[in-house]
């Protein structure tokens, strides 16, 4: 019986993480397009193969960081070992320099969790 409390805590943590993933996935892609235009669009294109100051975000989900051909990434990004998933993008756009210290992105981050969920839903639709 003494081991039940740690098991309950573990199950609760697993449920919380699962629910957090679903909450993030519940973003509105249509609203996210507007967030993208205002927060990301100056530096990133949603179109395949069209880089701006930053790499294109078309098809970014599942892509290893720092791998778009002919884009000049920082060594920090190339060495990050990140494969872009919705939760990694959420961490990155919350505080880019915290996830990838030494990266080139000149964006302080987006504090609004709902706006992040919306823009991630939009980015997920780019495929």
General description of the model:
This protein has 127 residues and is an all-alpha fold.
Work out the number of β strands. Answer: 0
The unreliable regions are 9-23
Helix content, binned percent: 40-55%
Q: Please state the CA-atom Rg, rounded to the nearest Å.
A: 17 Å
Strand content: under 5%
Shape: globular
Question: Average pLDDT, to the nearest integer?
Answer: 87
Report how far the terminal alpha carbons are from each other: 50 Å
Count of individual helical segments: 6
| Secondary-structure content class | mainly alpha
Write the H/E string, N to C.
HHHHHH
- Could you describe the largest sheet, including whether it forms a barrel? none
Descriptive keywords:
127 residues; mainly alpha
Short description:
The protein is mainly alpha-helical and 127 residues long. Helices cover 50% and strands 0% of the residues.
Draw up the topology in text.
Elements: H1 4-25, H2 29-40, H3 75-78, H4 86-94, H5 96-99, H6 113-125
Helix pairs in contact: 2-6, 4-6
């Amino acid at each position: 019986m003494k081991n039940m409390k740690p098991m309950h805590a573990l199950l609760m943590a697993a449920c919380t993480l699962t629910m957090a993933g679903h909450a993030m996935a519940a973003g509105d892609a249509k609203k996210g397009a507007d967030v993208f235009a205002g927060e990301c669009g100056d530096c990133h294109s949603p179109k395949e193969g069209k880089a701006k100051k930053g790499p294109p975000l078309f098809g970014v989900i599942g892509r290893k960081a720092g791998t778009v051909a002919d884009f000049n990434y920082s060594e920090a990004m190339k060495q990050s070992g990140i494969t872009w998933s919705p939760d990694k993008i959420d961490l990155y756009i919350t505080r880019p320099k915290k996830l990838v210290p030494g990266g080139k992105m000149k964006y302080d981050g987006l504090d609004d969790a709902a706006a992040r969920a919306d823009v991630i839903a939009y980015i997920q639709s780019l495929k």
